[in-house]
Design brief:
Number of strands: 10
Structural class: mainly beta
Oligomer: single chain
Largest sheet: 10 strands, antiparallel
Helix content: 10-25%
Length: 219
């Protein structure tokens, strides 16, 4: 009952607050990298690939995973030349709550499966069931590798970069990122954002989401 009351308070607060200017990213979106003719293609193993996420707010945090449904990486002379992943937004899972104790409610809210007027609070998976990430370049400087690419969520594409390690073992390729953060409001995920809405006080959700990407692919 307390959780229901708190949710109602947050929703009511949002409806009464004035909206600030939408978040903007001035970074340009670059064209996706293309593989050379002699590159080897590694297909993503969806059963071994996922994105871990952590969302925070003043009262605590939640964490979970999102699965990849497909994708491939192109390798040439031991270096990744290009790659694209498809993100299954309907696979959003909350790990820190138990079934029957808010888990299903939060997962439904993140997916936008409740009331129609609330569908766009987070990821609106009915309208946008998939996201994508396309690599634009992979750079290694002083033994540190950075993956640059375009992340598309809710039909909005923005550039994202993250540090990662890439390992090749025979027919297997693994790409593992370090933890990195993105500003969710750049993709129109505005629910309870104090940079978008006024007068939320402590009833806000932090704009930054922490992510960690693990991709396993086979030739």
């Amino acid at each position: 009952m307390k959780k229901i009351i708190l949710s109602l308070v947050v929703v009511t607060t949002l409806s009464l607050t004035s909206c600030k200017k939408e978040a903007e990213s001035t970074e340009p979106v670059e064209a996706a990298a293309e593989a050379s003719a002699d590159a080897n293609t590694f297909k993503v193993d969806a059963t071994k690939s996922s994105i871990e996420w952590v969302g925070t707010k003043p009262a605590g945090k939640h964490n979970g995973t999102i699965s990849l449904s497909a994708g491939e990486l192109s390798l040439n002379n031991g270096k990744v030349e290009s790659g694209k992943f498809t993100i299954d937004m309907n696979s959003i899972t909350v790990l820190d709550l138990k079934a029957g104790d808010g888990k299903e409610d939060l997962e439904g809210h993140l997916k936008g499966l409740g009331k129609e007027e609330d569908a766009d609070h987070f990821f609106n998976t009915k309208k946008f069931p998939e996201g994508t990430f396309e690599i634009t370049s992979v750079e290694t400087v002083d033994a540190k590798t950075t993956v640059n690419g375009n992340l598309t969520l809710k039909g909005i594409t923005k550039p994202v970069s993250f540090p990662a390690s890439i390992a090749v073992d025979g027919n297997n390729l693994t790409l593992s990122s370090e933890s990195f953060k993105i500003n969710r409001t750049l993709w129109g995920v505005n629910y309870a954002s104090k940079s978008i809405f006024d007068n939320l006080k402590d009833k806000f959700v932090d704009d930054e989401i922490e992510l960690k990407v693990t991709v396993t692919a086979t030739k």
